[in-house]
């Protein structure tokens, strides 16, 4: 016979489970991820002709094995519904038909991506922030932000949920690093704005934004609080929710 406590746990159990996504949502997530890889990183390996502006013919893309179960309507729906506006669809000429591209995030060289240069203090957003995770924070604090195989470091003009911020930072980021844009600009670091509002920078000649350009840092999870920018592995650097130090304190 089940106890009242057991019945209570059984009743509470389903509330703690994440509701399964509808099948069509799973298909859209799968399609979005496949598009991101093909248009940002894999076009050449996949044999897709990519223009200098990053566009590829949609018809050719849909002929690839991983896309054959999807239609033009599926792609249009994913492009329209994507909150971060990662992709752009546009008409091509009669020989190509519809064209599609990723708006940013490429590891491929895309020289004519239609990025808007931000060359003055007036053009540069007042807030420039990069979102990251605890596991990367010690390395970032020591070496700076890196392109990590992409052509640009991604920045947002605010934190997730701020007005006008639709992309540039994952909503589950744990650490926010605020950049001193005027100092970096004065040192010759270039900044651009992508079609979906992400602020991009190639960093220095080695693809880094050095720690000297960090203005402040903020822990986002589990609660927001300032972080030290000291170069040593201080207590703040070890204050992540899964750090050995935190586990030791809890014991």
From TrEMBL:
<dbReference type="InterPro" id="IPR042081">
    <property type="entry name" value="RNA_2'-PTrans_C"/>
</dbReference>
<dbReference type="InterPro" id="IPR042080">
    <property type="entry name" value="RNA_2'-PTrans_N"/>
</dbReference>
<comment type="similarity">
    <text>Belongs to the KptA/TPT1 family.</text>
</comment>
<feature type="region of interest" description="Disordered">
    <location>
        <begin position="1"/>
        <end position="28"/>
    </location>
</feature>
<dbReference type="Pfam" id="PF01885">
    <property type="entry name" value="PTS_2-RNA"/>
</dbReference>
<keyword id="KW-0520">NAD</keyword>
<dbReference type="GO" id="GO:0000215">
    <property type="term" value="F:tRNA 2'-phosphotransferase activity"/>
</dbReference>
<keyword id="KW-0808">Transferase</keyword>
<feature type="region of interest" description="Disordered">
    <location>
        <begin position="232"/>
        <end position="251"/>
    </location>
</feature>
<dbReference type="InterPro" id="IPR002745">
    <property type="entry name" value="Ptrans_KptA/Tpt1"/>
</dbReference>
<dbReference type="GO" id="GO:0006388">
    <property type="term" value="P:tRNA splicing, via endonucleolytic cleavage and ligation"/>
</dbReference>
<protein>
    <recommendedName>
        <fullName>2'-phosphotransferase</fullName>
        <ecNumber>2.7.1.160</ecNumber>
    </recommendedName>
</protein>
<comment type="function">
    <text>Catalyzes the last step of tRNA splicing, the transfer of the splice junction 2'-phosphate from ligated tRNA to NAD to produce ADP-ribose 1''-2'' cyclic phosphate.</text>
</comment>
């Amino acid at each position: 016979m089940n106890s009242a406590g057991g019945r209570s746990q059984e009743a509470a159990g389903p509330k703690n489970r994440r509701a399964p996504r509808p099948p069509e949502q799973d298909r859209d997530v799968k399609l979005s991820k496949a598009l991101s890889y093909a248009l940002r990183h894999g076009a050449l390996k996949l044999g897709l002709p990519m223009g200098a502006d990053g566009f590829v013919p949609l018809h050719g893309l849909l002929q690839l094995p991983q896309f054959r179960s999807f239609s033009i309507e599926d792609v249009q729906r994913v492009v329209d519904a994507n909150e971060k506006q990662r992709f752009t669809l546009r008409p091509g000429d009669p020989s190509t038909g519809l064209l599609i591209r990723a708006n940013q995030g490429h590891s491929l060289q895309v020289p004519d991506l239609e990025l808007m240069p931000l060359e003055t203090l007036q053009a540069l957003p007042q807030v420039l922030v990069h979102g990251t995770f605890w596991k990367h924070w010690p390395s970032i604090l020591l070496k700076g932000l890196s392109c990590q195989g992409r052509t640009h470091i991604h920045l947002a003009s605010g934190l997730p949920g701020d007005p006008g911020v639709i992309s540039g930072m994952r909503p589950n980021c744990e650490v926010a690093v605020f950049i001193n844009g005027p100092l970096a600009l004065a040192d010759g670091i270039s900044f651009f704005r992508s079609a979906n509002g992400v602020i991009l920078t190639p960093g220095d000649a080695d693809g880094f934004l050095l720690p000297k350009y960090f203005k402040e840092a903020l822990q986002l999870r589990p609660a927001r609080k300032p972080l030290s920018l000291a170069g040593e592995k201080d207590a703040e650097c070890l204050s992540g929710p899964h750090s050995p130090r935190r586990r030791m304190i809890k014991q």
